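Worked problem 6 (solution included).
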Amino acid sequence: MPNYIRVDDRLIHGQIITKWAGYLSIKNIIVIDDKTANNPTLKSIMSMSVPKNYKTYICTLEGSGEILKNVDGQNNLIVIRYPILLKKIYEMGIKFEFVNIGNVSKKEGGEFEITHNIFLTKEDINIIEELHKKGVKIIFQLVPDTPSYTWEKERTKFFK
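Solution. The predicted structure is:
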């Protein structure tokens, strides 16, 4: 069973719980975010929002390898805040074939708009392109019942 990756700067929120987890038949929700994992209050608030039928892990990048090893073979939704973590996770040897980018707020250097709620930096684009060339399927989609945009199509705006 696969690891699904969701890039969403809101991390766990209603759309993750009510839409994506059920749609993907998720068993585990794994948030990899150093800031949240190192803040007991944030970690507690985020964990409380998840129904008990999903096992929830909130960990640092460094601690994620051990957790992912323990849940290997299960349907996992890995949620990260920014595309730069995609490269780091991939380099750690965490296997994934599918990335959903759902919400990346505009930040400094995020001048490339994919949709009204997804803004990428040049570094983000290069990381996504690198993963695309390695066979990773990348889509941009808010929730399962909204239109999706594939990197295969969107990349033509950036690469000839």
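Discussion: The chain has a mean pLDDT of 90.
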